Amino acid sequence: MTDTGRYADELAAFSARKDVAGAHAAEPPMDTAAIAIALSGDPDEATLATSRALLGVIARSVAEALELVTLPQFRVLVILASSGPLRMSSLAARVKAVPSTFSRSIDRMEQAGWVTRTHSSDRRREVLVDLSAHGRQLVMHVTERRRKEIREILAQLKPEDRQAVGRALALFAAAAGEPPAEDLITLGV
């Protein structure tokens, strides 16, 4: 079987499993303990409970992808998806990897069809690493799975509560600021 055929089979299985695995997210009743925390008036506890819930969403969204790639490999795919092609040395620095070891990891990712390598048009000796179509598709699947589960969770709320959650989370995000990429890549987000 060709790499493309193998990848198509893996992605089809991944897509089928994500629908089954994601189905449980919309079904459970709302956690009454979490509601009690939210209504207690303690914003620290409510925010901590929310962060745990969001970490669960993140973990579930990336779990199936980790059957196809390792977490460090997925981190590389996420970085490339957000930044575009990078010099091998810059990418290694972003993931805090030793360049020689990292080059072997990129070899394996390229052989598996997740990334491509090209020589820079400006500097022939410089190697650029970019997402392949397969790598981009995997990152998009994980992101869409996360969006879907968030929509399912929010659908459990009354419309006015959904709006309140949206406003509260937007305020929190504005107060926290955009986290540096280094903070996010640890979790593959």
Describe the SSE topology:
Blueprint: H1 3-26, H2 32-39, H3 43-63, H4 71-83, E1 86-87, H5 88-94, H6 99-111, E2 115-119, E3 127-131, H7 133-155, H8 159-176, H9 181-185
Antiparallel strand pairs: 1-3, 2-3
Helix pairs in contact: 1-7, 2-3, 3-7
How many strands in all? 3
**Strand count, sense and closure of the main sheet?**
3 strands, antiparallel
CATH topology: Arc Repressor Mutant, subunit A
Order of helices and strands: HHHHEHHEEHHH
Shape annotation: elongated
Describe the structure.
It is elongated and about 60 Å long. It has a single domain (3-185), classed as Winged helix-like DNA-binding domain superfamily/Winged helix DNA-binding domain (Arc Repressor Mutant, subunit A, Orthogonal Bundle), CATH 1.10.10.10. A hairpin with a 7-residue loop joins strand 2 (115-119) and strand 3. By secondary structure, the chain is mainly alpha-helical. It has 9 helices and 3 strands; from the N terminus they run ααααβααββααα. Helix 1 runs parallel beside helix 7 and helix 2 (32-39) runs antiparallel to helix 3. It has a 3-stranded antiparallel β-sheet.
